[in-house]
Amino acid sequence: MSASSKILTIVVLFTLTLAYSLYEKNKFTEIDRMSAANPILEAIPNFSLTEVYTNETVDQQSIFAGSRGALVHFWGTWCAPCEAELPEFLDLAKDLKEMGINVILLAVNDDNGKIKKFLKRFGQLPENVKVVHDEKGELLNTFGTVKVPETYLFGASGKNLNKFIGPQDWKLDSYKTRILNYLSKDSTIPQKIETH
């Protein structure tokens, strides 16, 4: 191979490499533009689902009725980490009732019969807990949830105050403290919140 052929090969490879890197850079720039257009969830989105036990409508407004805020907990009976953390989460829900916080157990891609059978082992659910089922899993994308379990804390204003990603050790008292701290920053409730 002559020297001019080698140089031509190097120039062609360099040009192809440069063109490919510019193409990839443009893809990431487009992703950044899309992310800017769809910011992280700032407030509770519009939704309307049916409560599994009572058939009442549960929507983004009703979950705040008479409360300081609400936890929306994405889960499924088919999800092993969800099953493992749910007893502790329901214990936390009982404590949150005393603090004026509602809880939505939002099952995704599940079956109402399986949901009821699964939850039967926990006996009577706390009064502040509503169980809804998003059969098509559409709210996963609406909320920005990638996998379950995930839990969102919303203030009474509807503002997203925190997102707990993955299974949590809900029995720790620090969760109650953190939840109350986040809620104290929501402008629609009194700034001083006492724990019970």
Structure, explained:
The chain is an alpha/beta fold and about 200 residues long. It folds into two domains: about 1-40; about 50-185, Glutaredoxin (3-Layer(aba) Sandwich), CATH 3.40.30.10. Helix content is about 40%, strand content about 20%. It has five helices and seven strands, in the order H-E-E-E-H-E-H-E-H-E-E-H. The chain has helices at about 5-35, 80-100, 110-120, 140-145, 175-185, and strands spanning about 50, 55-60, 70-75, 100-110, 130-135, 150-155, 160-165. The strands form two sheets. The chain has a five-stranded mixed sheet with strand order 5-4-3-6-7. The protein has a two-stranded antiparallel sheet with strand order 1-2. The protein starts with a helix and ends in a 12-residue tail after the last helix.
